[in-house]
Structure formats: structure tokens, C-alpha cells
Design a protein that fits this description.
Elements (H helix, E strand, L loop, with lengths): L2 E3 L9 H7 L8 E3 L7 H6 L5 H13 L5 H11 L6 E5 L2 E5 L9 H16 L6 E6 L3 H10 L5 E8 L5 H8 L5 E7 L2 H13 L1 H6 L1 E4 L5 H4 L4 H9 L6 E7 L4 H11 L6 E6 L4 H8 L23 H7 L4 H7 E5 L2 H15 L5 H13 L4 E7 L7 H8 L8 H7 L6 E4 L2 H9 L3
Parallel strand pairs: 4-12, 5-6, 5-8, 6-7, 7-13, 9-10, 9-12, 10-11
Antiparallel strand pairs: 1-2, 3-4
Helix pairs in contact: 3-4, 3-11, 4-5, 5-6, 6-7, 16-17
This protein binds pyridoxal-5'-phosphate.
């Protein structure tokens, strides 16, 4: 299957090129030329399929023409070595727990899939490929761990100094091997801008091969459709209208949900659940998309001022504002509202959410109508944000899973760089 650019200003490319280039030559985002629906039989049988099995069926629709079936099956099965349980938190409100992977956040799914797909394509090449990834916290850890030790690939993680949690930082600064952490004196938007500049730098690209592992990469974001199907598969009552509430930053997760719907998943609505960075909420209200600098919140993985995947949403609905509003509604919450929700759900149900999931929950609690079932994406384990969550629910109430404890034991190693592209370029120029 071919991939076109959302800017429609460059020839279509193969899957291999879309994955290795990350961003299209005209700076647009790649989109698959078709979104094929799954057959009715799939939806009849989905309830008895494992996460791996149903994901393989979804994966074939995107990647089946380009990757041998056996290889694709191996990639999917090796990516999904954990489940995404659906847990009822309150009447008709479910948490889709996406934190059971190695770094305890949903980004494990896309990152692990992409590492394996890239490694499949690189089998033919000799040159080192450099993966550049900007992170507000969780992407860096998921990508670093997903790619750790993969031959032929070096990963460079750019993160904003002092703006990620201790555990997040440990997850990508302690690994060594083919992973380097770059501590940028700036914001997440600065990190993202540096990566974008590198991709526009034709001189640099003559010298080294770079690719992106941010959610703009099709190999990262398409697999995120898998767990929407898994959620629906696990619902006992499939007759009710289903609303997905998606805590959103760069909108990769929500866009993947829209893809799942186009493939036939019966979703009645999506909620774009935002913290104070409410650029998309504003767009839904006014029809005007106005990016602005991000503000810091306690749900910091969603502190994004110019969501990169929004270009895909516009393209998917032909830039038609009304068509987009038919699919989704937007909400925005302050830090105080997030704290209040996290605490009250913990006190009344015993269920502990992370600050991002709490945004998703609150949106359902406010907006769900009679007859609807709400599913919010619990995008990370609360222990990834121990300090913030303990501040809200009290010390001793946030148990840390063993795999997170293990990360805390490592020693942090990072390279400090300013947010000036000249400095980043000098660093990249030293690479081979
Ligand atoms: C990345 C992230 C988000 C935002 O996801 P997008 O796909 O960028 O919208 C939300 N919550 C957590 C915990 C994250 O790591």
C-alpha cells in the first residue's frame, strides 16, 4: 500500500519509505492511501480472540501487502506481550489500562511495533539509522526501551530539562548501549522544533540517515488502533453506544481511534480530553486552529501547543469542520480539576488513576449520556507520576510496580544541549 502526504505536494511512497523517512518530503504527515474495513465476521468473532490475534487481523489491513504474513504475525505477537485490560471504575465508565507494557505507558505499543518493523526493513541495509525522538516524558522511554539493543539503529532522545518526572527520566537516561539522552534547555515544543529542523536540513541528511519515532511515524501511530478493538472485544454489552475519551497531547492516540472507526469499529463519539492546552477544543468550537506555546500542567505528557497529528485529522475529514465535529467533542480541565477528579475517584471507588487518565475520566463523568458506555484511555501507570499523585492522594497510596523500581536503580547519563538548532546540528554532525 502506498502512503501520501497530508500536504499533497510530493509523490506517494511505499511503507518502507514512509517508515524510514518519518516525515514526508513536503513536511506533511504520511497517510495510508486506503483504510480498508474489517469484515462483519471479524466483529462477530472478536469477543473470543486474544489481543494478539485480533491485532494481527487489524495489522493485515494496513501492512498485509508489504510484509510477509508470517513476519507480520511475528512482529505483532512480539510487540503485544502484554494485555490492555478493561476495568469498570463506575457504572458504565471503564478504564482501558494501557500501562501494562515494559515502560508502563501506552506508547510501548507503537514504539515496540515500530522498532520491529524498522529492523525488518533495515535487514537489507548497511548504513546506521539514527532515530530522533522528542519527548515530553513517555515517548522517550517507550522508544528507547522498544529500540534498545536493535542492531543498525541508534536512538537520540531529546527531552526538556527539568520538565519530566524522575522515573520518566530514568527510563531513557540509564540504558546506555544504542540510546543517548539529550537534555534540552527549553520546552517540549523546542525539542520537537529541533527534530523538525533536522528533518528539513538537506545538508545533514546527505551525511547521515535520520528517521523519527514520534507519533508522526505511521509505524508508531497505526498500531495504536489495535487496543480500541481490544477494548470493544472485552465489552460484555456491545449493544450500547460506545464513547471513547482520549487524554490528548499530540493526538496520535485519538487519530488512531478515528482510523479504527473508519475500519468499522462501532464508536458513537470520541472525546478529545485536554488539560489547559486546549488548542483542538478551541478549534472544535470555533473552526479556527490557532497553535500557541504550551503551558505546563500536572498532566505533562499532554502539554502540547501545536499537536502534530491534527494534520491527519484534517486530512481524514477533508478539512471539513462540521465533519470533524460529528466525530468528536472537546473538553479542557485545569490542574485543580484534574486533582479533584483523581482524588474523588480514589476515595469513592479505590481506583487510582494517573493525571492523564483522570482528564479522560472527568470528561466521561460530565458528558456521558443515558444509554452510552464510556471508555477512557488510562494512558500511563500512576506510579510514573508518583510525586504528583502522592501530593493528591497522600504518601504510601501509590504502589510502584517492580519494573518501575528497577529503572530507578540505574545511573542517569545525559548530554546537555541548548534549544538553539546550531548546537543540535553540531552534535548530529559528529555522528556517522
Ligand atoms: C503521550 C501521552 C499522552 C498523549 O498522547 P497523544 O497521542 O500524544 O495525544 C497522554 N498521556 C500519556 C501518559 C502520554 O504519555
Amino acid at each position: 500500500m502506498n502512503y501520501y502526504s497530508t500536504n499533497h505536494n510530493t509523490p506517494d511512497v511505499t511503507l518502507e519509505l514512509a517508515v524510514t523517512q518519518g516525515l514526508a518530503a513536503d513536511r506533511g504527515l504520511f497517510m495510508p492511501e486506503r483504510i480498508d474495513p474489517l469484515p462483519e465476521s471479524f466483529f462477530r468473532e472478536i469477543g473470543s480472540m486474544s489481543f494478539q490475534e485480533l491485532s494481527f487481523e487489524v495489522a493485515k489491513k494496513f501492512f498485509g501487502e508489504d510484509i510477509p504474513e508470517y513476519t507480520l504475525q511475528k512482529i505483532v505477537f512480539n510487540t503485544l506481550t502484554f494485555d490492555t485490560p478493561l476495568v469498570e471504575v463506575n457504572e458504565n465508565i471503564y478504564s482501558l489500562e494501557l500501562f501494562h507494557g515494559p515502560t508502563s505507558a501506552f506508547k510501548d505499543v507503537g514504539a515496540r511495533f515500530m522498532a520491529r518493523l524498522l529492523s525488518h526493513f533495515l535487514g537489507k541495509e548497511k548504513n546506521m539509522v539514527h532515530v530522533l525522538v522528542a519527548t515530553s516524558g513517555d515517548t522517550g522511554s517507550a522508544v528507547a526501551n522498544g529500540f534498545l539493543g536493535v542492531a543498525g539503529i541508534k536512538v537520540h532522545v531529546l527531552y526538556p530539562k527539568g520538565k519530566v518526572s524522575d522515573i520518566q527520566e530514568k527510563q531513557f537516561t540509564t540504558l546506555g548501549q544504542n540510546i543517548t539522552a539529550l537534555e534540552i534547555d527549553g520546552t517540549f515544543d523546542d525539542c520537537q522544533a529541533l527534530v523538525k529542523f533536522a528533518f528539513m536540513d538537506d545538508e545533514l541528511k546527505k551525511k547521515i540517515t535520520i528517521t523519527s519515532a514520534n507519533s508522526i511515524n505511521v509505524a508508531r501511530f497505526l498500531p495504536q488502533a489495535f487496543y480500541y478493538f481490544n477494548a470493544w472485544a472485552k465489552l460484555e454489552d456491545k449493544s450500547r453506544d460506545v464513547v471513547f475519551s482520549v487524554p490528548s497531547g499530540n493526538f496520535g492516540n485519538l487519530t488512531a481511534g478515528l482510523f479504527a472507526k473508519k475500519m468499522g469499529l462501532p464508536v458513537s463519539k470520541f472525546i478529545a480530553a485536554n488539560n489547559l492546552n486546549d488548542i483542538v477544543c478551541k478549534y472544535l468550537k470555533t473552526g479556527v486552529y490557532e497553535p500557541r506555546p504550551s503551558v505546563s500542567t500536572i498532566a505533562n505528557a499532554m502539554d502540547v501547543g501545536d499537536p502534530s497529528n491534527f494534520a491527519r485529522i484534517l486530512d481524514l475529514y477533508g478539512h471539513n469542520h462540521q465533519a470533524i465535529c460529528n466525530e468528536m467533542i472537546g473538553t479542557t480541565y485545569s490542574d485543580d480539576q484534574i486533582r479533584e477528579t483523581l482524588l474523588s475517584v480514589f476515595m469513592t471507588t479505590g481506583y487510582l488513576m494517573d493525571p492523564h487518565g483522570a482528564v479522560g475520566y472527568r470528561a466521561l463523568n460530565e458528558l456521558l449520556k443515558d444509554g452510552e458506555t464510556g471508555i477512557f484511555l488510562e494512558t500511563a501507570h500512576p506510579a510514573k507520576f508518583t510525586e504528583t499523585v502522592e501530593d493528591i492522594v497522600g504518601k504510601g497510596n501509590v504502589p510502584m510496580p517492580q519494573k518501575l523500581q528497577n529503572f530507578m536503580k540505574g545511573e542517569k547519563i545525559s548530554i546537555q544541549i541548548s534549544s538553539d538548532y546550531k548546537d543540535f546540528r553540531a552534535y548530529l554532525n559528529e555522528l556517522e
